[in-house]
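Schema walk-through. Below, the input block comes first and the output block second. Nothing else is stored per chain. Lengths vary across the set, and this one has 601 residues.
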Amino acid sequence: MFYKSCPLHLTVIVLLALTLGCKDSLPPVERKTDSSNSNSLPTSQFVGSEACKRCHQVLCDKYAGHPMSYSTREVASDNWRSDVKNLPARVSGANRLLTAQVVEEQMVHSELMFDGSGALIYEQPHAMKFVVGSGARARAYLEERDGQLFMSPLNWYRKTESWSLAPGYRADDVRRFDRRANEDCLSCHTGRVEPTTDVDGSSHLAIVEASIGCERCHGAGSNHIDYHDAKLVGFKVDPIQNLAKFTPAERDAVCYQCHLSASARVPLPGKHAWDFQPGMKLSEVWAILDYGTEVSNGQRTRSVNHVQQMRDSRCFKQSADRMSCTTCHDPHQIPQAQTQVEYYREKCINCHKLSDCTESGDLRTQAQDDCIKCHMPRLDSSNMTHVAQTDHRILRNKLNTDSPVENTLQYFAETATEFSSQQRQRGLALGTYIHCTKKGIAIPDGLKEFMRKSLENFPTDALLLNALGSISLQKQDLASARKFYNQAVQADEGNEAALDGQLEVAYMQADWAICVQAASKLIQIDPTNVRAHAYRGDASARLGKIAEGIQDLEVAVKLNPGEPMFRQWLIEKYTQLGKSDEALQHAELLRRIQTAKPTKP
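--- output ---
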């Protein structure tokens, strides 16, 4: 099978969309909601965590100290002034400098470029709106532009108390500050997001509740409140979700919806991350594929791999599904630092006896009888710098740190049995594509054909169509790529990934009219889409509308002042119009950009 020929050491592929554009290499999930398939609850059924305090004040006060309770918040309300150290911060690339600093009580991340003589070419500031992460391991930052949320390439890391590039970013990354925070990011790091449509028809995700709240685990609270206020007569029992009554799969899914970071999470046709509600199984929203525990090289593991490691432990396997995340973790509060050893030791001796420990008394005393220190040591992350996490395999022998690395993608747990054969085929095809794209490894031979067979069962599936378009584009099969992207746009006219692919293929084929059309739709979705402005500008000029083209190209260089190609295009267009002064101005800037250094000499 093709998925067995996808080793992790294959040559890296640089996608055209990543090289020239501002999109992630992963295909964005379709934004268009199919109400016939969606499990999304009406907004009116959600009441927000503040409403829970009326009856559950003590529990809410406890939860206020849990990292989930401040998973995302507005920078203006955050305590970064005292908690985040080393400001201003500087992170250098080969020719650009990134900084983080406080400017007039705002957290501002900036990109700067200096020429060879040390003179500043430009400084582009970005005011951060949201901080993401409790700070226990790291903090990430989001900028809001035209209703859209974009990631900063800079993170703050607790372990080293320093600033560095965010996971997935490279030095001088072409995505800069243009990497969209999509629904997968927001659905796990925020309490609730909702798709909204603006007056002009463009859609985006709005954060309704910033941090993880009560309703993420207990379900929408409106009926629960009405039940206790005697406003509901149709319920014999409290309609709030009671996790104690869930099946093991339903119980675990509440935690796994965010804490299961798998190789690929493929939404089912017409489903979105926000469709998941407590009481559902994961397989009602996603097909999830994974490579397992992925612990190797002595003390390194893939970050956010706790679920797979726990399920690989002897404790879990012998528990007959009784063990779960909440066996050891209280979802409402975390133990204080001074009581953690005793707290987790008590969790262990609920199943084990202290006399079971075969370590010498002296070493146990030296370790303060800390079960975690010996059996769940800290492991460095293999895919995130400045980060470590607890080994959840609960090893009997702490020296046995390696786990065999699977070389094939597999459906998570027993979920494969919960899908039809057609759904399994679709999930495996898209899961393989997503995993390989995310890792930057070669697409296996045979995947395209396997995916085409799946398309026969899901002919209007924009995820499949976009993936087929991307594979065709990588193989320089422009005719096939164009066909698949066009079909994806027909299936969902506002699908950003399809429009982006349509734009790329049209430009490569010199179909300037389609270029302008696709770019215009992308700009309507995201007015700050640099590549769409640049491509539309060049295409318009080639259609004889040079003045219109120049307007778009000027917007492109304003959004990305350090991109040489766009400057070159402007030089050509101004020269065509006989505007030598403007052409010389951009030529001088281009010359300086070509000598760029990240800092003054």
